[in-house]
Amino acid sequence: MKFSGIVKTVVFLVVFAKGITAQEDVCKPKFAHLALGSFYSHVGTAECPTAETPACVGLARATVVFETSGECPNSVVKLVDSKGGQPKSLATERKHFKFKDEVLELEYESYVHTVALKDVPIDVAHTFTVIGASDNEAETSGAAQNFSIPKPLPDDTITEVVLLGRFDGGAQSKDILFHAKSQPASATLILGGINPLSETLRPSESALSHRPVLYASGSEDEPTNYAFSKRRFPSAHDGHYFSANIGKGHFVVFSLRHYLTASEDTRKTMLEWLKKDLAEADVATVRATRPWIILVSGDPFYCSGDAIPCQRPSESFNDVEQVLSQHGVDIVLAGGVPHYERTVSVFEGHVAPFDVVPGHETDDTIDQIANPTAPIYVVVGNSGIEDIKEPTTPPLDDYSIFAEAEPGYAVLSLESTTHLKVSFRNVKNEEKDAEKSWQKSLFLFVLFLLIVIAIAGAFAFWYFRRRDLLRKKEYFLY
Questions:
Q1: CB burial readout 121-160, b (16+ within 10 A) else e
Q2: Cα 319 to the chain's mean position, in Å?
Q3: Which of 29, 354, 382, 423 is in Cβ range 3.0-4.6 Å of 345 for a Cys bridge?
């Protein structure tokens, strides 16, 4: 009987251990990140002029999102502020996400967990930790992620946003995310979508979790009918059209791809919404403090090269372009093609009048434009393209002034009420610069070490030489 009892105990422990291991596996959080909340779509409007307006108080300032393989009903998010407040444990909402396409041979299944952060103070450092199973916290906790909520209303500081092109699972995605993470900014803007089946991004989740993400869906979202982006980056109108106020900029996300393929009724709804949103942002009193209007699309309006979006006739989106020009949209950001490109002022497929800042024009490019009469178009699409082994810069169309095919990201800086800057960061060049810096540091260290050795050698020679002389002196005195 004793032996039988021992056997039962062992069997129970083995089964119990397997159960814990299984829970650890299916409830281990993956791909934790922050999505920009609906608060930013309302604050600064007539209905919600300040963050303290009652209409804005209950809105999500950011949404924590992560996934697990299993259902994990006890998942939570722990939130801690840097001022030593009491940690909060927030229960998550979860949705089952399953996708399978026999033609494309795509299959994916997970549970997506979300927590809306509604009362997080603006511009205060916080830390969140996602936990897949609160009853097994030690084994199902993700890494602690530091973050802060960006300022929705303009002030004297520079508003900076990191711009990332689409991610289709390329190995270089991790490198780009690593470099982009170190860039100080208020938010991250993803142009053109993320491949939901990509494992490449999972180790890089912290790059998308320490500041809120504004997401513009694109070609990577089409195979799943935008199911991935709707669950991972919740926003109004399934993410096809919405706006957000961040610092000095009014960002309008408008999916050109969805607009061109939608039904006539949907196109009419999207266009009417765009007119209303831009009309409210283009009021003189509003632009006096929030001067910049930036349209964001996963697909480009204008670009050079043979890619399908670049061959699209401007007549196909002329109605949208008329609205952008009418309401003074300053710049249009897009992804969708595997290179970086910027244009001069463009309207209906042709160069529109603009001024060049004196001293900023060369034979190759123009790097400062003033008083454009139509939007400037910038494409950032080369952040994670796997199948391009040798990036090739396309021949530029008449309205384009610069293009770069090497992998990288861009930074949008709203510096003042009169100055906006977009700068491209070539990751390979940054790595070369880092390598040069490391080599320089190593050289300086070796040089310093040699100098120390030389000084020590000279001192030793002097010391022993002096000692020998003293010994000889003592000998003769003796």
A1: eeeeebebbbbbbbebeeebbbeebebbbbbbbbeeebbb
A2: 30
A3: 354
Closest-CA residue to 330 (of 283, 366, 378): 378
Instruction: Compute the distance between CA of residue 431 and CA of residue 291 in angstroms, rounded to an integer.
Output: 35
For the chain, how far is it from start to end, CA to CA, in angstroms?
97
Let me know if 252 is exposed, middle or buried by CB neighbors in 10 A (0-12, 13-18, 19+).
buried
Contact between 147 and 283 (Cβ < 8 Å):
no
What pLDDT tens digit does each residue of the chain (478 aa) get? 455 555 444 444 444 444 444 555 899 998 888 999 999 999 888 888 888 888 888 899 999 999 899 999 999 999 998 776 778 899 999 988 887 766 666 677 889 999 999 888 887 889 999 999 999 998 899 888 888 889 888 888 899 999 988 765 556 777 788 788 888 899 999 888 776 665 555 545 667 888 899 998 887 777 667 777 778 888 888 889 999 999 999 999 999 999 998 999 999 999 999 999 999 999 999 999 899 999 999 999 999 988 888 888 888 899 999 999 999 999 999 998 888 999 999 999 999 999 988 776 665 567 788 899 999 999 998 765 554 555 567 778 889 988 888 888 999 999 999 999 999 988 765 444 333 344 456 667 777 888 888 888 888 777 776 666 555 544 444 3
Question: What is the C-alpha to C-alpha distance for residues 210 and 144, in angstroms, rounded to an integer?
Answer: 10
Question: Sign (positive/negative) of CA torsion 300, 303, 305, 309?
Answer: positive
Which residue type sits at 408? G
Q: Which pTM was predicted?
A: 0.82
DSSP symbol at 345 = E
Token code pair at residue 29? 């959080």
Bridge-based pairing state of the strands 213-216 and 187-191: parallel
Packed helices 172-181 and 427-477: angle between N→C axes, nearest 10 degrees: 70
